[in-house]
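Risk mitigation, structural track. In case the binding assays with zinc ion fail to produce interpretable data, a predicted complex structure has been prepared as a fallback.
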Amino acid sequence: MSRSSLAKYLANSIAPRSKHRRPTGLLHIARLPTFAVVTAILVSGCAGSQPYRLQIDRSIQAVSQSSRVSEVVLHYTVSDTPRALEILSKRNVSSHYLITDETPPRVYQLVDESRRAWHAGESEWYGRTSLNASSIGVEIVNQGPVEQGWEPYSEHQIEALVLLLRDIVARHQIHARNVVGHSDIAPQRKQDPGPAFPWKRLADAGIGRWYDETKAVQLTRHYQRDGLPSVSDIQKKLRRAGYAVPDTGVLDKATRRVISAFQMHFRPASYSGEPDAETIAILDALP
Ligand SMILES: [Zn+2]
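Fallback model:
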């Protein structure tokens, strides 16, 4: 119905013409203001003003705020650069960044940091689960396990990674303990970035968590002399270090996998998952 016909319709329904009965004066007086209001609404609502345009004033920013990003998760791709690019940009997995194995390496950003990349899967760190929601994922082109051991990361890749991580950590104020490997947050399923990944080198560059090496040497002697703590205590120590670990008090397969993930990160010379004096000493010497 057009505006003029709607107005006519309203006018007619308010003051219907009658052949038989003239409307009383009182009725006229009572209905006139209603008619005036309806007309005013029609004029002001439909014809006169512009539709409301959303304008957001960002001139005042709250002091109480922080980034939604709490962790950086590092991965190896297993596949080569072209295949990794194909998979990470077109399949149902992705990462925020990909560092290639070219010289010098190219650093691709495939997902904006404000958005969720699908790199972590089922995961847990310090009780926080499903870390896709809160982390930035960095994939590094590396074959992982090869015939004789593990493929080393190139010096160029680590240099690029250090620069990238320094920037990410500073912008999002990420805590050192929250720079982690996929194996740290999903020890039952994942081994990347693997024992060839130079965590110590990163720590020397001021990135990520490392342990007090002097304290670890002393504690290693202590555990060698006095024996290891109970499995239940070891599980508690791992949990305090951030890992999702069973609470069984038994050195089961799942607990061994967590110990192995811890060893790959902090003591990669041996990562069998067997608890030993040095491993427990390092756990104790973590900040
Ligand atoms: Zn991964």
